[in-house]
């Protein structure tokens, strides 16, 4: 095959795939932020109120976090230089993991490159042929992809449906490991897993519970320790918690927290850990500062929840459907995808950055704008957003005049 023919076939494939995405309304062109990730940022040359970020506590551009990052950069260099298992484990990596384990009240913790790769690494290391996995139907894509790497039997239970979970456990007995997997906070709807009752059901059948706390860590529980702590399960040896360090903590990375043996297994078997360079020192420093900051100052969590309650209440007063959200993730339902995308465009015209989401990211008929309120938003920011929502909602006929 000639080089020219190979190039033509490649170009045909790229073009056809892009056309398919555009025809299906799934083509993505990300907005570019022209200023730091904050409650107000800059897009297309104008200042906007930012409701699209996962920066729950406002740490992404916090001075204390940036100062620690700079200090670690100067003291330890720009990069780790190797994978963790060869020569890339610096003392600061292990110090931070001990700090994180103490914060989470677990026996140990291991940090991986991202929350996505953490699910791949933990599930790929833990599960074997003959094991049984029960996964909530709305679990994150990283869990779904992680399970694809496993030879375990996989079953999906209806969202937060404990009766369906119990039925599947009864119908699929096994002598292998049984693992019940759930998000702590679900990223599209903002609802919380019924973790206390779920663990009880799992224990009836000798199953372990696995919680992805990406959107719960830094948000729920005492000092933001997460969903597991929120339900008082932080000392339970039959609960594994994983999560991300890129949302409330404002930086990047993922973690697995639990028994020391889990950490040791992952060091030896988790492929993302074994084959990826360790985090740069500046990242480690920023994360260390973020964990310190949330424990030193309770106002971050307090402001986050004060803002969340206010924003939800006022949206409902206007007549919007927020789909029963229980957390700072606040969906506003517009029905079909074109309406949600048009609402996002109209909001941006009014200085509000909030992204529309449609099928297949969310079910048909439940297209929405997903808003995330942060600790950094002021009441003026939220009132500006609410005023814009009122105008757009009436213009599109989603709420009454």
From TrEMBL:
Alphabetized GO MF terms: ligase activity; pyridoxal phosphate binding; transferase activity
Cofactor requirement: pyridoxal 5'-phosphate
InterPro entries: Aminotrans_II_pyridoxalP_BS, Aminotransferase_I/II_large, AON_synthase_class-II, AONS_Archaea/Firmicutes, PyrdxlP-dep_Trfase, PyrdxlP-dep_Trfase_major, PyrdxlP-dep_Trfase_small
Domain Aminotransferase class I/classII large: 47-387
tRNA-binding as UniProt keyword: no
SUPFAM superfamilies found in the cross-reference section: PLP-dependent transferases
Assigned keywords, A-Z: Ligase, Pyridoxal phosphate, Transferase
Highest taxon listed in the record's lineage: Bacteria
Gene3D superfamilies the UniProt entry points to: Aspartate Aminotransferase, domain 1, Type I PLP-dependent aspartate aminotransferase-like (Major domain)
UniProt record similarity statement: Belongs to the class-II pyridoxal-phosphate-dependent aminotransferase family.
Subunit (UniProt): Homodimer.
Protein name: 2-amino-3-ketobutyrate CoA ligase
Source organism per UniProt: Deinococcus ruber
Lineage of the species this protein comes from: Bacteria, Thermotogati, Deinococcota, Deinococci, Deinococcales
